[in-house]
Amino acid sequence: MTAGQIAALIAAGAFVLLVLLLAIPLIKLGRTLDEATIAIRKTHEGSAPILDGANTTISHVNTQLRRVDGITVNARAVSGNVSALTSLFTATMGGPLVKTAAFSYGVSKAIKARRERKEAKGKK
């Protein structure tokens, strides 16, 4: 055996050792990828019922929103009617009520002033 052959044998052995050392992480990486694939598959299978439930929930929410929209339209109509009624009341009764209130206030002030004058004369 010559020195070249011995060197070739050592190089071949080192190459085999290198291949073995690299094979272990590659095998572990393959297992990790298999586990990741299984996890993704299970997640995909489990998400279908969740998405179906979400679609059902959204359908119910849309139904409720349509009902709320109807209620809002009716509330708008009622507030318009109340506004019209308030305007009508103000136009027909507001003026006389304000005049009556002002008159009664004036009368009470006049009576109070008269009483104060009488009391002031009585003390002198």
TrEMBL record:
<feature type="transmembrane region" description="Helical">
    <location>
        <begin position="6"/>
        <end position="27"/>
    </location>
</feature>
<keyword id="KW-1133">Transmembrane helix</keyword>
<dbReference type="InterPro" id="IPR009293">
    <property type="entry name" value="UPF0478"/>
</dbReference>
<protein>
    <recommendedName>
        <fullName>DUF948 domain-containing protein</fullName>
    </recommendedName>
</protein>
<keyword id="KW-0812">Transmembrane</keyword>
<dbReference type="Pfam" id="PF06103">
    <property type="entry name" value="DUF948"/>
</dbReference>
<keyword id="KW-0472">Membrane</keyword>
